[in-house]
Write the structure tokens for this entry.
Amino acid sequence: DQQVKQNSPSLSVQEGRISILNCDYTNSMFDYFLWYKKYPAEGPTFLISISSIKDKNEDGRFTVFLNKSAKHLSLHIVPSQPGDSAVYFCAAGPYDKVIFGPGTSLSVIP
Amino acid sequence: GAVVSQHPSWVICKSGTSVKIECRSLDFQATTMFWYRQFPKQSLMLMATSNEGSKATYEQGVEKDKFLINHASLTLSTLTVTSAHPEDSSFYICSARDWRTGANYGYTFGSGTRLTVV
């Protein structure tokens, strides 16, 4: 049973528009959340994180929103660029061990 | 920032042989390292958590005798795939925990190892 879910396996967005990637988790005790970007045959690269004491964190073009009551987080990328095309993993868990979702493949179309 | 080096980046081996993958934290000491496996178009599956100086903690379904993990120092953890079979072919990734934390709560990943067993 997946504790971290990313229900959209893929997403296509036009360059310059907003990309919204969603993630749901089942364990209300999770209090650390991270987003990673991954290219094929490479290790994941950290993008942005948020802890349960906040509901929004912003870093440049990337913003993560956390809705604790809904056990849902989302990553917004604005504006989307072709170089953003990759697989995005969300991760959630307690401080000492996070669990990864299955990933969403984002394609940004020029 | 924290850097994790993983070696080799790819390896091909014959069935029945063993392969060792190294994971090094280059500029920090990692008391905890994690080993993941990724099948094509699938998520990162945590295989085991490795703590320096103690035995690794394996996730359910992961064979301890097949995937030997050693974390002998604060900067090095190794994963040895013993008696490799074609079904062990996969992409293996390590992550080292930098307890100085930072925005990523200390989780930094290596670049991964593509293992192909023929």
